[in-house]
Amino acid sequence: MSDLFEAVHRFSSETSPLDFHLVIENWRLFWYGLVNTLILWIVSLIAGGLFAIPLAVIRARRVPVLNQIAYGYIYVIRGTPLLAQLYVIYYGLSQFEFIRESAAWTILRDPWWCALISFSIGTSAYTGEILRGAIEDTPRGEVEAATASGMSQSMILRRILLPSAFRRSLPSYGNEVIFSLYTTVLASMVTVIDLLGAARQFNSKYYLAYEGFVTAALIFMAIVFVITRIFRFLEGRMLRHLAPISS
Amino acid sequence: MIASIRKIALASVMVFASFGVAAAEDIIRFATEAAYPPFNERAADGSIVGWEIDLGMAMCEKIGRKCEFVAQDWDGMIPGLLSNRFDGIFASMSITEERKQRIDFTNKYYQSPAYFIAKKGTKIDRSAKDLGGIKLGTIGGVQSCFLAKYYPDAKVSIYPTAEDTYLDLQAGRVDTILAESVQTDFGLLRKNPDAQYAFIGEPALDKECYGEGIGIGVRKDDVALKGILNKAIKEVRADGTYDKLVQKYFGYDIYGQ
């Protein structure tokens, strides 16, 4: 470990125009940021994903009243920048005294929870629309066959529509997963030290913009590399029946 | 022989360099944050106004040069200067040793200390490394340098701008903020006279973190501009223009010792 440290030091001072020695020295800061980024990202994906399923079903089935509400929700969330949503939740809600005195304040006063809530809301709207499209694209024949074999509406949903929609939405959902990773950088705007927040702190401490931000960018690239591998694997397994027939 | 070739090469480089200077001499571009009232801020119509803008323009008038202010986020100030996107940082930037390793500064044009600001009666234990366990908000840079040095165990949240710290002080997310005094006087204290916010205790002073005052940041190789600006500061100080602007905006001296 100390050999590696020494090597980076030598590389930084002799060869590289960028000083990565200080980055290594501050690895705790970047590690802390990475952990925050990963937790915010994964938990918001799970929470947003779970909320996206009823949204998608309501929209695809055109459930009266609820459909209009779901449409309005998705429209507002997709129609406004995520940073504005985060600020509304973090600074906006804190302006009201009745909120500060309510039980919700124990959660809302914490910037970490505000970030998590707004990221979950954000990804739920986008994922909901991806899933709705996939449900609506299900071949009619599959549903008719299920109805003919005596399945109830809810059983069709559980056994036919949703599993098939999940599979077919994988490629576009992979995109949403990557995008939602990048939206977590907004957490640093409300004092949560995520990966970008760590790079910002590093920058404000040493005035080394490139070193800090390049480090953050490289870590993001590594995460995305893993995500794309996972999705390629999943697509290979689950969408094999849709692949072109090779002769 | 080789020496004379060198001389010719050097001379031609200098000719080109002076062309560069001549082209740049038309207009001096200053970067400002445009979010630091009353020093620099955006007016309702989107233009950048403030004491620093008035001072900068007065200085330029004294030395007969055209100047222009451009808005730039704080994080990109030094990188932007180094990549020639503007010629000077006129944005209440403290002259510190760390910054001096990357850029150069003119003489100071003001210096106002940082204070802890909280509701009157808030107890801040300045002798404890964690400030008595209270929650504190501040912005990055010099303020976080001071805190890391004297209060390493304090619970500190770092905000993108000073305005954000005011909002969270008012919301009660933090008990106190560490902020530059003039800015907070205008941004928070004068705007909320009923809220009973006050400067608590002694000013936060540390030469290593806060440096020797606030100067205009310039590129290290831009010696000519540094000289011109220093002359301009001296002239506006000498002829009373500076004092007039200080009186207009603050009502008390901000030049310091």
Automatic annotation (TrEMBL), chain A:
The keyword Cell membrane applies. It holds the Pfam family BPD_transp_1. The keyword DNA-binding does not apply. Keywords: Cell inner membrane, Cell membrane, Membrane, Transmembrane, Transmembrane helix, Transport. The chain crosses the membrane at residues 29-58, 70-93, 177-196, 208-231. It is found in: Cell inner membrane; Cell membrane. InterPro entries: AA_ABC_transptr_permease_3TM, ArtM/GltK/GlnP/TcyL/YhdX-like, MetI-like, MetI-like_sf. Residues 34-231 form the ABC transmembrane type-1 domain. Its main location: membrane. This is Arginine/ornithine transport system permease protein. The lineage of its organism: Bacteria, Pseudomonadati, Pseudomonadota, Alphaproteobacteria, Hyphomicrobiales.
TrEMBL record, chain B:
Residues 1-23 form the signal peptide. Pfam families: SBP_bac_3. SUPFAM superfamilies: Periplasmic binding protein-like II. The keyword Transmembrane does not apply. The keyword Signal applies. It is found in: Periplasm. Residues 27-253 form the Solute-binding protein family 3/N-terminal domain. SMART domains: PBPb. Keywords: Signal. PANTHER family: ARGININE-BINDING EXTRACELLULAR PROTEIN ARTP (PTHR35936:SF17), MEMBRANE-BOUND LYTIC MUREIN TRANSGLYCOSYLASE F (PTHR35936). This is Lysine-arginine-ornithine-binding protein.
